Amino acid sequence: MKIVTCTAPVNIAVIKYWGKRDEKLILPLNDSISFTLSQDEMCAKTTVAISPNFSEDKFWLNGKEESLENPRIQNCLKEIRRRASKRKMNGFDDEMLNWHIHVCSANNFPTAAGLASSAAGYACLVSALGSVYGVEGDLSVISRQGSGSACRSIYGGLVRWYKGEQTDGSDSFAKTIAPPDHWPNTRVIICIVNAGRKKTPSTEGMRRSVATSSLMEYRVQTSVVNRVNKIMQAINEKDWSMFCDITMADSNEMHAVCQDTFPPCVYMTDTSQAITSLVYQYNEIKMANKEDHHKICYTFDAGPNACLFVPGEVAEEVMNLVVTAFPPKPTQALDEYIRGEKPSNSELSKELTDLIDGDQEAGRLNYVIHTKVGDGPRLLSEPSNHLLNMDTGLPK
Amino acid sequence: MKIVTCTAPVNIAVIKYWGKRDEKLILPLNDSISFTLSQDEMCAKTTVAISPNFSEDKFWLNGKEESLENPRIQNCLKEIRRRASKRKMNGFDDEMLNWHIHVCSANNFPTAAGLASSAAGYACLVSALGSVYGVEGDLSVISRQGSGSACRSIYGGLVRWYKGEQTDGSDSFAKTIAPPDHWPNTRVIICIVNAGRKKTPSTEGMRRSVATSSLMEYRVQTSVVNRVNKIMQAINEKDWSMFCDITMADSNEMHAVCQDTFPPCVYMTDTSQAITSLVYQYNEIKMANKEDHHKICYTFDAGPNACLFVPGEVAEEVMNLVVTAFPPKPTQALDEYIRGEKPSNSELSKELTDLIDGDQEAGRLNYVIHTKVGDGPRLLSEPSNHLLNMDTGLPK
């Protein structure tokens, strides 16, 4: 038996992927750029085992047995095996490609939270497959075929997914454009919004936007192209204030396109919008105080949750502001409400307190995650990390 | 003393006015099209009196004395007097132009409702001024200078406001494009949403959209131009289904531009979005039943209230659906909750009942107005209608 375990990170786009030019190969209509998040708070973990003794392929996801026949998983598996068969590697036996495979995968964060768990999941699966079959080189093109944004979780720091020009998708890959410490100590605060609304799955939403929104066409052909160039400049020049403005503008535009879709796919709720207002007001204070480098920014994926990027120097202040403006229900302990580093009980400044109405409804957020920017997938060599038993190949 | 009283209607745009090319003259970036609403449920009423005995200009609005020095009111007044002085009319004495003026104005609907009360108000003021000074011909160019969309309230039925090309605004006027009974018995159902959020005033919102949204540029130059042509065709061909789709698409696009504005000016709330979902689901049922002519549509102005256009044949059904999906608070009588014609207590069909989750939060709407399409401003000749005392020129 050959067995391998990997973890892979979640990533959050600052220039959004919204719309495919090829549904089957998962090729996007525009370049996108993301921060890879630390795996301390959130990651997917996958163990892959292959053995001549396995009688069939098996797959367990978050403790439940599922079918491996999912076409997206099969695409990844096929592509990895194709690449493996092309390489004659040390100790790699072509026979292994015919062995059955066991896959066991789990996230250390709730999938129901509406976070992009499939990106971490597919990046993790492809990393583990790549390792078990001895495939080297870029894996982003392969994980892209599992879930588009998964290609960005193959690398750490700031990552750019190039849309590519080829019809076969061979040039639609991801690449690190800046390391995790490019802006040292950047914090990521994710506000998990308590949403009632049923949401349109992102695959369907994208398809509908491409088919019905004329603003979508303009975004893809003009505005997002300009914005990618501008944010690359902001990143290269380490201009955090400009980076924040572009990040918010692109989130705004993506959700504008969703609103322009027919019928609209609206992901942001009243609570999401209340968070954006708070961010703009916070930044106004920072700018008035000539602290543009302490600005913060938000971005929203295809869901109501806000993801805030925050300079380390103001992380505690922002955490306090968020928790004060959006208090937990009285029944919820603060320890349960905040996952990751808690702020100290320092008081908010008068100007920040003034941003808050005073009569705040509790429970608008389910919880808040405080995390950091991080690196790409990891191979865990310690056998205790495997999710599958090394003798039986079944879940521990 | 010369005294005149007019009423003027509210109008609701189906192709939206959002963005000015000239702030002072109030010239829009694109043509817009609206339905003028019946004055039975909602109108502004204005009495204008001029007299050689008045010692100063006076103005009362909704029972409170205000200054007539508001530049927008002064623009209307100046323009009316300029036009009057150019005409030598029967019985019109140039001396009258120097008399002081008393203006008393009131709406028969709450201004706080977030309905476009200024459109009805300025259309009414300009109609009354035109009448008192004997100005004939088109008054839409003048009322436009009070409040842009007021120019559309000068006419009945379906009205188009041409953006015009001239820098002096002389060709930016409104015109009826179809009479009130073009689609006979069209009903208008306005859902007044209980909104917590502070809203950006529309003048500021427009200015910000023009300055910051790249989608705005595309809307104005491309998509709204196409949509105006398409809706004109739908109106000429009496294609109600197409009219509905274009109306919703333009409302969607305007609010997409608002979302794309930096910072965003978001007017629709979760309740607004819940109404749009209900409309799309209702239309799906009608289309499945091959009743495309019974489709309904929504439009949203710079606020959370939904305005629905509904064929008379299904008005009762839609009223029942709205009131069932958005029930009043138990303390609110149905008579108070519905202004205008009430639906009978007929039961909703099973397929419509199925659209509603079952556990509906009460009080998401403040109330519902049920009204019709109507005609333009009216001159009320009966002295009992005057809001000013005919002897003193003071409010009755």
From TrEMBL, chains A, B:
Residues 188-379 form the Mvd1 C-terminal domain. The keyword Transferase does not apply. Transmembrane segments: none annotated. Catalyzes the ATP dependent decarboxylation of (R)-5-diphosphomevalonate to form isopentenyl diphosphate (IPP). Functions in the mevalonate (MVA) pathway leading to isopentenyl diphosphate (IPP), a key precursor for the biosynthesis of isoprenoids and sterol synthesis. One of its GO terms (cellular component) is cytosol. Its EC number is 4.1.1.33. The keyword Metal-binding does not apply. This is Diphosphomevalonate decarboxylase. It catalyses: (R)-5-diphosphomevalonate + ATP = isopentenyl diphosphate + ADP + phosphate + CO2. GO terms for biological process: cholesterol biosynthetic process; isopentenyl diphosphate biosynthetic process, mevalonate pathway. Residues 8-174 form the Diphosphomevalonate decarboxylase-like N-terminal domain. Belongs to the diphosphomevalonate decarboxylase family. Pfam families: MDD_C, MVD-like_N. Keywords: ATP-binding, Cholesterol biosynthesis, Cholesterol metabolism, Lipid biosynthesis, Lipid metabolism, Lyase, Nucleotide-binding, Steroid biosynthesis, Steroid metabolism, Sterol biosynthesis, Sterol metabolism. Pathway: Steroid biosynthesis; cholesterol biosynthesis. GO terms for molecular function: ATP binding; diphosphomevalonate decarboxylase activity. InterPro entries: GHMP_kinase_C_sf (IPR036554), Mev_decarb (IPR005935), Mev_diP_decarb (IPR029765), MVD-like_N (IPR053859), Mvd1_C (IPR041431), Ribosomal_Su5_D2-typ_SF (IPR020568), Ribsml_uS5_D2-typ_fold_subgr (IPR014721).
